[in-house]
Amino acid sequence: MPFLIVALLIGLVVSITLAVTLGSVEIQPATVWKIALSHLPLVDQWIGADWSKGEQTIIWEIRFPRVLLGAVVGAGLSVVGVAIQSLVRNSLADPYILGVSSGASTGATLVILFGAFSMYGQYALSFGAFTGSLVSILLVFTLSRIGGQNSTVRLLMAGIAISAILSAITSLIIFSAPNEHGIRSVLFWMSGSLAGGKWEYLTIPSLIVVICLIVLLAQYRSLNALLMGEEAAGTLGVNTVQFRKQLLVITALLTGVIVSISGSIGFVGLMMPHIVRVIVGSDHRRVLPVSALLGAIFLIWADVIARLAFAPEELPIGIITALCGGPFFIWLMLRSSYSFGGSGR
Question: Quick one: which of 37, 99, 100, 183 is 20 to 30 A from 162 by CA?
Answer without folding.
Answer: 183
